[in-house]
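Hey, weird one. I pasted the AMGO1 protein sequence into the form twice and got a warning about non-standard characters only the second time. First submission, copied straight from the form history:
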Amino acid sequence: HSMAMGAVGWPVSPMPLLLALALLSPWGSAGGTCPQRCVCASNILSCSQAALSSVPSPLPRFAAVLDLSHNNISRFRADWAPGRLAHLHALLLSHNGLSFVSTEAFSHVPHLRHLDLSSNRLRALEENLFSDLVELEVLLLYNNEISAVDRTAFENLIHLRKLYLGQNRISRFPLELLRDGSRLPQLALLDLSANRLRGVPVGELQALPAWLRDRLYLHANPLLCDCPLFQLVARGHRRRLSAVLDFQEELRCWLPAASAPVAILSLAGRQPLNCSEAREAVLEAHLGDTVTLSCDSRLRGARNRHWVTPGGERVSEEGGNGSAALLANGSLQLRALRPEDAGTYACWVGGPLLNETLYLELLVHNFTLHGPHDTLNTAYTTLVGCILSVVLVLIYLYLTPCRCCCCRGTDKPPAPRDDSINSSVLSATPNHAAAVPGEPCRSRSSSTTGPGQNGRFKVGGTPQAPPRHGPKAQRKVSDPDSVSSVFSDTPIVV
């Protein structure tokens, strides 16, 4: 419609509204203008499918998302941005035919969190290529021609969580990215599918943290069949991991002299490997404990066996590393457990016709066996003691037994009116009238020393002020043994 309806139903021209939106938009201000052949909305700049051969200029400094996908930008140089783009957190450069990216190209965008370089013609990841992107979380490099990855290409990416390297030409597993956990400490997903990997370091992959080991994609690679590979995939299938279940048909490997690959999960009991599925167990322990990990193998009398620690260290019959020792029955003994001893231990047993691997996950709780329980018992005892103290104080105040079986025949003058008011406010024991001779005692306090506040005895007595006449007669001296002073001695439990 060319006209809009107003609040009361009258037609209103849309021009004032569009003018107001243009004035409110940053593109209409002094911050910058929208480049030609681009679509701009708020802080989003979309130049997709604009037949661009270079990055448009000038770029507004407040842009947060820059989409340059599906263009013809073949080289991404260091001067693509004339100035620093401090607000840019997403840069999309897919489907551009990129063959060159400068090592200084990302110095202008220090706060970038999402970078898409997929579906290009990149052949190598150069030294320190992404080192300026210290806040990067997602990096997409799939569907390129990458065959070489420099060891320092992902240096300083301490916040990277997802790395997609699938559909490339990588022939060597980049284990240096994962081995010590310091290069990419936050990495939770690694996609190496559809590359040219022939082998996988299964033993070291078992030592990876579970969040990364369970999100490692290896399908559609020309892997060579062996039993450790089978056990790695079978373990993921048993745990119903998406990396195995979703790509089960593409998880295939090559047997010697075979004309076609076979499914990795079909290697169970199949000649010539005759692989058996690895078994797992979980053991819990505490700091400082000594535990024994049993290698409960079905292969009796097998002499060829060894353990692999979570750090990838091999413990064989020759001895251990000081805290780990291989026993005569094949078990692994760990002494004085430390937090770094936690992880998955693998026991490999080899026989003439069959080999077997057993995995045992050790959980080391970060406290001693008796520490937290003792703390809990102490806190519980303290709480019970405080509650018992309060109960005893209340019993003392309200249920103090009468010390006389009959009252003496001495009449007491009634208390003044204002003292009765004070007693009703401050005392938990009501005032009583004078006792009648010969009747049982009904007062909770003795008449020899005189009752104090709260119906308590004042041993030694606090001297009373001399009686006065008037509206404020017989005002008592403050008593340190009042209710407030009694409860002030009781510990407060928060």
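That's the output from the first submission. The warning seems to come from a hidden character in my clipboard, not from the data itself. The chain has eight helices and 26 strands.
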